[in-house]
Design brief:
75 residues; alpha+beta; five-stranded antiparallel beta sheet
Length: 75
């Protein structure tokens, strides 16, 4: 599996998941040096962009939690 990396505000993040819902792609990124530093970005024209608002963030987080429910419950 190929891991994509990107720099955001001087910090290098690895893309750990990509979920597409209703025509929107959400990238889930983790800081290479701090696994507790987790960000979500929308992918538009193959570029990471900020989410529109708190509601979109909460929806994107819900999609991630739903997809990984079994893994989360194991921990």
């Amino acid at each position: 599996m190929e891991i994509f990396s990107t720099e955001i505000d001087g910090v290098l993040y690895d893309e750990v998941d990509l979920i597409e819902v209703n025509g929107n792609k959400y990238a889930y990124l983790v800081n290479e040096n701090d696994e507790d530093d987790f960000v979500i970005r929308k992918v538009v024209n193959e570029e990471y962009t900020a989410l529109n608002d708190k509601t979109e963030y909460e929806l994107a987080l819900m999609y991630y939690l739903k997809k990984h429910k079994d893994e989360i419950e194991e921990n």
